[in-house]
Amino acid sequence: MSTDPNAPGTVVDRLLPRRLCTPTPASAFAPANIALSKYWGKRDTQLNLPLNASLSVSLGSWGSTTHVASSPSGRDEVEFNGDAIDLKDPSAQRILHHCNLFRRTQNIPLRIVTSNSIPTAAGLASSASGFAALTLALIRAFRLELPCESASMIARLGSGSATRSLWHGFVRWDHGTRADGTDCHGNQMAVNWPEFRIAVIPVDTRPKTQSSRDGMNHTVRSSPLFAAWPALASVDCKQIEEAVRDRNLTALGTLAEANALAMHATMIAARPALTYLTSETWKVLETLRHARHRDLSAYATMDAGPNVKLIFERDSENDVKSLFPDAKVIAPFEDQPKI
Fold first, then answer.
1. pLDDT for 229 beyond 70
2. Can you spell out the DSSP letters for 182-247?
3. What is the pLDDT confidence band of residue 122, given thresholds at 50, 70 and 90?
4. How far apart are CA 329 and CA 308, in angstroms?
5. Residue 120: CB atoms within 10 Å
6. What confidence tier does 80 reach under pLDDT thresholds 50, 70, 90?
7. In 3-state terms, what secondary structure has residue 290?
8. What are the strands, taking DSSP E only, across the chain?
C-alpha cells in the first residue's frame, strides 16, 4: 500500500474493513449520463478531481450491468458483452485495477461480467456507467456498508464522470476542496421532470483519434483560453442548477449549449488545435438553430466527441424526430431500471 495519504488505494483503504469477506454473487446496473454543465481539467489527475463542479442527467435504461462473483477458475476473469477479454487488454487492466482498490493485498480471484444496453451506433462512451456499475457490484459482493457518497467517490477513481452515474435523474458533482477528494462526489438532485427528453444524434460513431483524457491534458497545457474556463464553468454550473430546479427548459438549454461550446472553444484554441467536432456536427447545430427560429424548443450539448445530444420536452418530440430521423430519444424520468 502506498505511503502517500492521498493515493487512491490509501483513500479507499480508509473506507473499507481490514479484510474483506468471501464475495457472494452480486449485480448492479448504472445509467450512463451526459453533462449539461461540463468539467474539463483536473486539479488532481491521480484522484480524478475536477477543477470545477458539473451537473448531468442520466440516460434512463441506457447503461451498464455488471455481475461480480468468485472466479471458479481460481484466477481473474473479465467478460464484456458476451466476450472474454484478455487480462492484458487495457480495458481489462483498468477493471482489475479498480477491483484491486477493494482487494488490496488479499488474493480473491473474481469473475467480472459486464454488458451494455447503450446502442453501439449511439457513439456514447460507457466508462461512466461501467465503473459505476462495477463499484456498486463490488460493494454488494463484499457486503460493505458504504454511503452513496463514498460509493460515488470510489467510482470516480475508475472514471471521473462515473461519480455521476450512481443515480437516475439530475446529479451534481461537487469538485470539493480536500486534497484526498473525500468531498468530491455526486449528489442526486430532488427534481422530477417527467416531460424531459434527450435525443442522441449519432454523427460519427467510430473510435476517437484522441481520448478525452489526453485531449483534456493537452487543452490544460496549451490552450491560452483555458485559464478562464474554471471560473466560467463554475458560474454556468450554478445557473444551470437553478434552471433545473425551476424546470426552466429555455434557461437550461441556452446555458447548457453555451457551456458546451465554450468548452470546445478552449480545445480549438489549444496549440496545436484540438477539435472533436466535425463538419457533420456543425450541420446538426445549424439545422437546430434554424429550427429554433421556427419556434422549436430544443438545445444541444456535445461532450469530447462529434455526436450531438439534444434536450427538449415531450411536446417537441415529434418535431425533433422529424428533423433528425436518426435521433434516439430517451425519457430519463420514465424509464428508470433499478440501480
1. yes
2. TT--EEE-----TTEEEEEE-S--SPPSS-HHHHHHHHHHH-TTGGGHHHHHHHHHHHHHHHHHHT
3. confident
4. 12
5. 11
6. very high
7. helix
8. 26-37, 42-44, 49-50, 54-70, 77-80, 83-84, 110-116, 170-173, 186-188, 196-201, 298-301, 308-313, 328-330
